[in-house]
Design a protein that fits this description.
Blueprint: H1 17-68, E1 75-76, E2 91-92, H2 93-96, H3 104-112, E3 163-166, E4 204-208, E5 223-224, E6 236-237, E7 264-266, H4 278-281, E8 282-283, E9 293-295, E10 307-308, E11 318-323, E12 328-332, H5 356-362
Parallel strand pairs: 3-8, 6-9
Antiparallel strand pairs: 1-2, 3-4, 4-11, 5-7, 6-7, 9-10, 11-12
Length: 373
């Protein structure tokens, strides 16, 4: 019996090359549509985590004030003894808040010192720690709550952070002039609730800063910027004369985003959480969030005298701030900053800020109450 064959009528059950390419193209389009949404969701989660960190800082601040009836100073500690022993009066206010932010073990270690450590002091490290700029192993890992997940700079296990204490609209001698700082945190001055006559809900306490890594700290004299490589909100431009009378001069050293090529800068923002110098742990309410930071000609290393230090973040359009009442709000980059070509109203706490709503939110008792609403 003959065998019948019909090979020509067999149908393929697989995809043709054209069909496969169409499927790949469709998947690529879907991924392209979904990726921005995924990235936005991730940033929203990072921003929420960052906000929660600031709430923790705000709660620690209020717990400290409830215990001691005052707020910590931005810079304090012990001053007597050899230069690298004690902490040279530069211990950051972040250290004072440790015990109120679930970091009691670290706080106790710092207060205990280390008599066996004789690298810097022949008698060992005394209670309170060594000079605040020293890379002591006990305080080398900054607490995790001081790092914003959106900030790519701070490295776990190092002294690098993402949050700063407010010096308000002060520019002149913010490094050490105790009685001229119009913000909440000053040098060896411990404010109380009674000092905040503008109202705690109208006064900035903390805000974000972008850590300066990977840009160099700059040593004694700073580093030279190459054109369009150094973001102006991660570092500060040095040697800008006259900023205490005209803070808008900071803009003349940038192209609107980057430090101009050839300018001298220092990458010290957020690089050392234990040192209370403004270059490391302070923010100011003069130029708007994500504006350029700059310093006057006086001072070397991170010890500049006159400084403009806007807060900065990777969040779209602005920064988180913690107010003196413990609440956290988002401040946009287009907040009213008044007359940035004007000098401050004076070297005393009283007197309205010339820097609009933003400046008023930084002062503690300048009778220039402005609300975020």
């Amino acid at each position: 019996m003959p065998v019948r064959t019909n090979f020509g009528s067999a149908k393929s059950s697989g995809f043709t090359l054209v069909e496969l390419l169409v499927v790949i193209a469709i998947i690529g389009i879907l991924v392209g549509l979904l990726l921005p949404a995924v990235q936005a969701a991730r940033e929203a989660a990072r921003r929420m985590s960052c906000s929660n960190n600031m709430k923790q800082i705000g709660l620690a601040l209020h717990s400290y004030a409830a215990t001691y009836k005052r707020f910590p100073a931005r810079k304090g500690g012990t001053r007597h003894g050899p230069r690298h022993c004690k902490n040279h009066g530069r211990l950051s206010g972040h250290i004072a808040l440790l015990a109120f932010a679930e970091q009691t073990a670290m706080y106790n270690q710092i207060q205990a010192g280390d008599p066996s450590h004789t690298n810097w002091c022949s008698t060992g490290i005394p209670p309170g720690g060594p000079a605040a700029w020293r890379n002591w192993v006990v305080w080398r890992p900054a607490p995790a709550y001081l790092r914003c997940p959106s900030d790519p700079g701070p490295r776990p296990g190092q002294r690098e952070i993402s949050y700063g204490m407010s010096v308000g609209d002060s520019i002149f001698r913010v490094r050490g002039d105790q009685h001229q700082i119009r913000g909440l945190f000053a040098n060896r001055i411990f404010r109380s609730f009674a000092d905040i006559t503008d109202g705690t809900s109208n006064t900035v306490a903390f805000s974000e800063l972008l850590n300066s890594r990977p840009f160099p700290a700059g040593g004694r004299n700073g580093a030279t910027a190459e054109a369009q490589t150094v973001p102006h909100n991660k570092v500060y431009v040095r040697n800008v004369s006259g900023i205490h009378k005209n803070p808008s001069l900071c803009y003349s050293r940038t192209d609107g985003r980057f430090v101009l090529g050839g300018e001298i800068f220092a990458g010290r923002r957020g690089r050392n959480w234990t040192d209370g110098q403004p270059a490391y742990v302070a923010i100011s309410t003069v130029l708007p969030p994500n504006g350029p930071a700059c310093a006057g000609p006086a001072g070397n290393f991170g010890d500049q005298r006159d400084m403009v230090l806007p807060p900065a973040s990777q969040h779209t359009g602005g920064v988180n701030v913690a107010l003196a009442d413990g609440s956290v709000r988002f401040i946009t980059e287009n907040i009213d900053t008044g007359n940035l070509s004007a000098g401050p109203s004076g070297n005393r706490l009283r007197g309205p800020s010339p820097y609009g709503v933003w400046g008023a939110l930084g002062t503690i008792g300048a009778t220039d109450v402005s609300t975020l609403d």
